[in-house]
Amino acid sequence: MTNLAPSPSAVRSAFHEELGPGQRSALLSWVAFTGAFAGLRALTYSIRAGKGPFRNVSVGGEHLHHYMWGIALLSGVGAIAVRGEEAHRRHPAVAVSYGAGLALIVDEFALLLDLQDVYWARQGRISIDVGVGGIAAAGSYFAALPVLRRLRRERQHPAIPVQGPAPEAETGAGSPGVIRGASGA
């Protein structure tokens, strides 16, 4: 049986070779948003059902909504964007913090919009979950499309390993010692 999943090194190579720095940041942000939103939904449902070790966070009897943590994360990202050096602004942690912070805020958008705690109101809760989840998955997919296309090409036209270093003209970009299939893909 053939393993259809690409190796972690193939994904890493495609990520760095197919995407520019801005595209990598966008993909990391979308994936962080999607993961954080899905994790928040699971966490809040488990808290609501009283299952698992997690409970609401309160200070002085006041519930701390998770949009506050999102605002804090986005404030940190903003500070880095305004005052940070280019290497800091392009750091993967900044992109992940941006996506996760945005998910923390978007998850409680109804509360922010109405300034009432309508988080668990029946009207629209499921449709909001599905809608935001769908947007998150679509954004992640489209941001990852160059990487996914590369991985598909490599699966359809696997590299042929050679003994020793191959001449420059015959090797794939960034793949010394590997000759690509006849299509050059």
What does this structure look like?
With 185 residues, the protein is mainly alpha-helical. It has one domain. The protein has seven helices and five strands, in the order ααββαααααβββ. The protein has a three-stranded antiparallel β-sheet, with no helix packed on it. It has a two-stranded antiparallel sheet with strand order 1-2. Strand 4 (171-172) and strand 5 (175-179) form a beta hairpin.
Largest sheet: 3 strands, antiparallel
Helix and strand sequence? HHEEHHHHHEEE
With strands numbered from the N-terminus, the spatial order across the biggest sheet is 3-5-4
Assembly type of the chains comes to: single chain
Helix content: 55-70%
What topology does this entry show?
Elements lengths: L7 H11 L2 H29 L8 E2 L2 E2 L3 H17 L2 H4 L2 H15 L2 H6 L10 H32 L3 E2 L9 E2 L2 E5 L6
Antiparallel strand pairs: 1-2, 3-5, 4-5
